[in-house]
Write a structure and sequence with these properties.
The chain is mostly helical. It has 23 helices and eight strands. A two-stranded antiparallel sheet has the order 1-2.
Length: 545
């Protein structure tokens, strides 16, 4: 009851009653716990595996009051949720002496855990940080020092989606479940398939912060590579991942990034094989692509993000999908439709998830993009010429002399920035003939050879790697290097392949990606080897400092 403005007591409101029930629930959990036989993973429960145990009534009451005042409440230990960990599995196994009874008990436990969304999401958690018991002033009932209450409140308020997966327990479980003579793997996947068929995960996928944990646990099963699990487990799970909120997809990627490369490769392999089968089954590829293919690529996107964030990143080729690339390269209508959706931001497109595309597909997309832009530039120039006397040419025409190839070229592209996306025509001064493509190729071959000649002074070539690097002693201005970059862009735009070999670090810098010692090793092997020897000498090079 609370005093009113007139000093009289007023009857408790429904909000007051709800707050009281909340405090009572907190108090019970802090003093009695959840009674789970092998302990729980809730740091604010007296039954927590590595917690301090039950709080005394005074400390529990004050902690319950503070927790009830927090903006986020729970999650509470639910006695009806039978989530898995290896301790509970061993506990149930030890309760039965006979083989038949033991197997039946374990099978029942696995069915319960994999047949319930809440149970599966809560399974295989990592232990929370241990909490100390707060100390209190006995006379005033005030806290003397903070010995864990802040961590208690933080742990209590954290959602299940913020709790890491204990990958060691996940590996141990599937190792036992897939062992000789065990039916636990089969039963787990059957229960999960029934759960996914009911659509429980999909209904909750976009809003429940712990759903990603369910997906991580299910996809860790080593037998999912077998085709019979594609429709029952893989497809529905990928659909859930595709429906996850960005925060939950990021949590799933972070969890996967902690795995060794061999285990992350398992997730990628299952997803790739599923995507290939679904792509071929849906041929001819519809516009937009089949929903199952889209969901699988979105799941693969989370795996790709995990690989990029991992210390043991997978090679880029691991994410190329053969079926998708085949359709993009061999079927012009598929590529054009995908490109159109990408440019218009109208639904799903493979171009938006370019990690599935190999070099040939990306080259085809770039070529299509260039053709469309050239066509638009050409049309605009023609229309302009109808209404304007002395309108510019619909082509980018370079008129160069063989004896002054570099000078003439750089001068013209520097003064014609607005024409660079027009179709290219090259005219050699004093020579007859129309450029139908052959003159272009000869022009780029000649100018590349001159620009990258060591005598020209702008570039240095590494003898071992054969790649070119910027000559810091060059007398040319930075504008000259910029114009060379523009020239290289014109070549790519017009579909001309150049013999200009740069180390990977150049492209990483263009993509604003971080670089490190491995990039130095790739660009300058001898220098990197010498520096490594210095580091290795005398305990990290300290003797030479």
């Amino acid at each position: 009851w609370q005093g009113g403005e007139d000093g009289m007591s007023s009857a408790p409101t429904e909000a007051d009653a709800a707050a009281q029930r909340l405090v009572q629930r907190y108090f019970a959990q802090l003093t009695k716990g959840c009674r789970r036989p092998t302990g729980c993973y809730n740091a604010a429960c007296s039954n927590c595996k590595n917690g301090p145990g039950p709080l005394d009534p005074t400390a529990a009451a004050l902690a319950a009051l503070r927790l009830a005042q927090a903006q986020v409440h729970g999650p509470f230990c639910d006695p009806d949720v039978t989530y898995l960990d290896m301790d509970l599995l061993r506990h149930v196994e030890g309760l039965h002496s006979g083989n038949v009874a033991r197997e039946q008990a374990l099978e029942t436990l696995v069915r319960q855990a994999f047949g319930n969304v809440d149970s599966l999401m809560a399974s295989f958690q990592t232990l929370p940080e241990p909490l100390g018991q707060p100390e209190w002033d006995g006379d005033m009932g005030e806290r003397v020092e903070d010995n864990g209450e802040a961590a208690l409140a933080a742990s209590w308020g954290a959602s299940l989606g913020d709790r890491p997966v204990d990958w060691g327990q996940v590996r141990d479980f599937w190792r036992v479940a897939c062992g000789p003579g065990s039916r636990l793997c089969e039963l787990a996947l059957e229960a999960a398939a029934a759960l996914l068929e009911a659509g429980a995960g999909l209904r909750r996928g976009s809003g429940d912060p712990g759903t990603w944990r369910m997906c991580a646990i299910l996809l860790s099963c080593p037998t999912l590579v077998e085709p019979q699990h594609h429709e029952t487990v893989l497809g529905p799970t990928y659909a859930i991942i595709a429906a996850l909120a960005p925060k939950e997809q990021a949590a799933l990627s972070r969890a996967w990034s902690a795995l060794p490369a061999s285990e992350l490769q398992h997730f990628v392999r299952c997803c790739q094989e599923y995507t290939i089968i679904q792509t071929y089954e849906a041929l001819p590829m519809p516009d937009p692509p089949d929903e199952a293919v889209c969901s699988a690529v979105l799941a693969l996107d989370a795996m790709h993000a995990a690989s990029l964030a991992s210390a043991a990143a997978l090679p880029l080729a691991a994410f190329y999908n053969d079926a998708i690339n085949e359709q993009m390269v061999t079927t012009d209508s598929v590529m054009r439709a995908d490109f159109r959706r990408w440019r218009a931001r109208a639904g799903f497109s493979f171009c938006e998830h370019a990690f599935v595309l190999d070099a040939a597909s990306k080259q085809a997309v770039l070529k299509l993009d260039a053709v469309i832009q050239m066509h638009n530039e050409f049309e605009n120039a023609v229309i302009q010429s109808v209404f304007t006397r002395g309108a510019p040419s619909p082509f980018l025409v370079l008129r160069v002399r063989r004896g002054h190839l570099v000078r003439d070229t750089l001068h013209q592209i520097s003064s014609r920035a607005s024409d660079l996306k027009k179709p290219l025509k090259v005219h050699m001064a004093g020579e007859e003939g129309v450029d139908e493509g052959g003159v272009q190729k000869e022009f780029f071959q000649l100018i590349t050879r001159q620009l990258f000649d060591p005598d020209y002074g702008m570039w240095l070539q590494d003898d071992r790697s054969g790649t070119f690097w910027f000559n810091k002693a060059s007398l040319e201005s930075s504008l000259q290097f910029e114009l060379i970059g523009v020239l290289l862009g014109i070549a790519i735009y017009n579909g001309i392949i150049l013999d200009a070999r740069f180390p990977n670090v150049v492209y990483k810098k263009l993509m604003h990606q971080p670089v490190g010692f491995e990039d130095l090793r790739d660009a300058f092997p001898d220098l990197a080897r010498g520096l490594q020897q210095l580091v290795d000498y005398g305990g990290g090079g300290r003797g030479l400092a």
